[in-house]
Amino acid sequence: MSFKKGLFLGTILGGAAAFAAYHSLDEEKQYELRNTVLDAVEDAKDRAFDYAYYAADSFADAKDSANYRVNSYKDSFDDASEKVSNKLLDLKEDLSDLQTYLNLITVPKTPEQDLEKDKESDDITLDMDDAFSTENDNDNRIVEKTTEEHRD
Asked: Is the pTM of this model over 0.85?
């Protein structure tokens, strides 16, 4: 015998036995049994509604919590996005300033111009041969004369 057939046969035989037992009771016992069963069904229905309300409340709480977190993450993402946008604008301005500065500087176009630029210098350069040559011995006499004049 399969499981389905056994379940069906048990339901039929159990129902028939319950029906026979119910009709074998006197009317007062049938009334008590009917009220007891109706009270049990009413309690079960009340519990089912209570659990349904609890589930709905829990679901609403979870939904509110999820919405709060999503909004919180959205706000922090918007703040971070705004900061990145501001930094990019600052960088764009700095690059524009740098480009303006670099456009003002003349850059040699050919290697010959580059060599001429290297030859030009604002620094003071001294040639050692010129500084210590015998032609410059008279410079010391000038310095000595000026110091003697200041002493007098």
From this structure: no
